[in-house]
Design goal:
about 350 residues; alpha+beta; OB fold (Dihydrolipoamide Acetyltransferase, E2P); 5-stranded antiparallel beta sheet; about 40% helix
């Protein structure tokens, strides 16, 4: 049975790839806790054949259920993912161009297969995780809605969430509608008037999903920052994930956590920010920091309250601190201060 399931996995995955489905393989870290709940390490997430088998079968089930409910015009929540905006795709193309990666196609009507080809260009390369994250950020958020508008990233005409009714309310709702369909209930004969409430339910479910994901990110960042609290002065491998006028964001490769290199710590030159190219360029020596560049950084400070890491580029000395200038007071202000004494 497992051999047959493995072969079916290959068939299903090949069909998805042929229609243009995007297969993200983002690196993630599992936080390792001791018996007291204290973070003691990070372990990279493995994506084995078993994981892929379950994923493909779940996707196939979700598509089949969505199509079945839609064909009977049953009120339900579908998982929709609209195409990305032209502006987001244009920005992505410009960033990829700087990395030597081509994104071809009409940005007003870009087939997901074009993004699939982008990911195919970096398979096995050091920048693969970074490019995968860039592509993911260019996409819209998936939502729950009563209309089966399709799922862009999966290149699927119909899609819903069906496989986790014990942890997601939209899946539970879909299960209830399937049971009603099996029982032969007329969708127009619904005493609960779900058709009138399903839009609001979808909006609420989308909101709570985003809130839960944000809470998860905050807790994970907090755990990782606490893990590194005693590592100030240590050097880490990293990759640039963001560039702003105030500094450089770097993800630590081993710990899957971001930190900031403040621009004031780049003491070897005066750096100019290029918003269009997402670069910082040294005015005198011409050194350029780009998105995706591999860097070695030193952990200079850990702020547990703000869940943040301050980093420095290895080998770059900070500029000397400017002496604080004493502000001169007007004669009237000096008179008032003497009067207060």
């Amino acid at each position: 049975m497992l051999d047959n399931a493995h072969e079916l996995l290959r068939v299903l995955h090949r069909r998805r790839v042929e229609r243009g489905s995007i297969d993200f393989d983002l690196p993630q870290g599992n936080v390792i806790l001791d018996t007291d709940g204290v973070t003691v390490g990070v372990r990279p997430t493995d994506r084995t054949v078993a994981h892929r088998l379950i994923e493909e079968f779940m996707i196939a089930a979700n598509e089949a259920v969505s199509a079945e409910l839609a064909s009977h015009e049953m009120p339900a929540l579908h998982r929709i993912h609209d195409p990305p905006s032209r502006d987001d795709l244009f920005e992505l193309r410009e960033i990829l161009k700087g990395l030597g990666i081509e994104l071809s196609g009409d940005l007003d009507n870009l087939h997901p297969g074009a993004l699939q080809k982008v990911l195919g260009q970096v398979v096995g390369r050091p920048e693969e995780p970074f490019v995968s994250t860039l592509v993911l950020r260019s996409l819209r958020q998936a939502l729950y809605a009563p209309e089966a508008r399709g799922h862009y990233a999966l290149a699927a005409r119909y899609y819903t969430h069906f496989t986790s009714p014990i942890r997601r309310y939209p899946d539970l709702l879909v299960h209830r509608q399937l049971k009603a369909l099996v029982a032969g209930r007329d969708p127009n004969d619904d005493p609960t008037r779900l058709d009138e409430r399903v839009t609001a339910i979808g909006e609420r479910s989308s909101f709570t999903e985003r809130r839960a994901e944000r809470a998860e990110r905050i807790v994970l960042q907090w755990k990782l920052v606490r893990l590194l609290a005693d590592r100030a002065g240590d050097t880490f491998e990293g990759r640039i994930t963001g560039i702003q006028p105030f500094g450089i964001f770097v993800v630590l490769t081993e710990y899957y956590v971001d930190g900031l290199v403040p621009i004031r710590t780049l003491g070897d030159d005066f750096y100019v920010y290029d918003e269009a190219r997402h670069t910082l360029t040294g005015k005198d020596h011409g050194r350029v920091f780009r998105l995706g560049d591999a860097v070695r950084v030193v952990l200079s400070d850990v702020d547990q309250r703000r869940r943040s890491l301050n980093l420095k580029i290895e080998g770059l000395d900070e500029p000397p601190a400017r002496p604080r200038r004493r502000r001169s007071r007007s004669p009237g202000e000096r008179t008032r201060r003497r009067g207060r004494r």
